[in-house]
Amino acid sequence: MSALRQLSRHAVLLGLSLLVVAPFAWMITTSLKSADKVNTGPYLVPHQFEWGNYPQALSAAPFGHYYVNSVVMTAGIVAGHLVLDTLAAYALARLRFPGRNVVFLGLVATMLVPTFLTVLPAFDLVIRFGWFNSYTALIVPRLADVFGIVVIRGYLLSLPRELDEAARIDGANRMQVLVRVLLPLCKPALASTAVFSFLFAWNDFLWPLLVTSDDQYRTIQLGLAAFTSKYAPYPQYLMAGTVVAAVPAIVVFVYLQRSLVRGLAATGVKE
């Protein structure tokens, strides 16, 4: 009976997995179909692989420049989240000061505020500071993230305080304790923060759309949107561009998925 139950459970999971993978499979196979075969049927495997769709799509728009902008923006945001979120999480998890829990609850409460309510004030600051159409506008307003603070703080709370005390007895200051003792043990939490920060930055559309108007600073998602409006009658080129834009996010997620699960599993640890 248990074997039958386990088999049925695996069958359900397999069916759900296929349901999730099917759109990606359709996207990839459509990008490899010829123009006269795109709308002929719902088959997944092309009769002939048209690899030339990818060079054609990449040459139709400055995807290389869009990629560089996305990489610069994403790298800056991920680095900011790892540094600033870690410092804030360390203070909230390890330092004793009045109102610490109130501050943390206040930060968590900000996660309930819809993003659209903060976009206009942030955009107004960008205009006032003269950052419009610059990497500064793309990166600086999003250098910290409450979600990363919650994840890293939860993982720090799972580590024994004896580690801090032993390091302090050996003469280490608080920054040395954080960098040399705690951070090497927090790799799963840092990986979780990095993955979510990367996906958030790489796939962001609204903020780059607001703070840029020049192709010199446009990201891959904005370029893909412009490409979509121009090449909508050519699904094979549109899917090729979409695959190119999605590959980095998929690679990062697959590479760090184990650390992602471990980091999130420790988030709910109570002090």
Automatic annotation (TrEMBL):
Membrane-topology descriptor: Multi-pass membrane protein
Domain ABC transmembrane type-1: 67-256
Compartments, record wording: Cell membrane
Keyword Nucleotide-binding: no
PROSITE patterns in the cross-refs: ABC_TM1
Matching Pfam families: BPD_transp_1 (PF00528)
Protein name: Carbohydrate ABC transporter permease
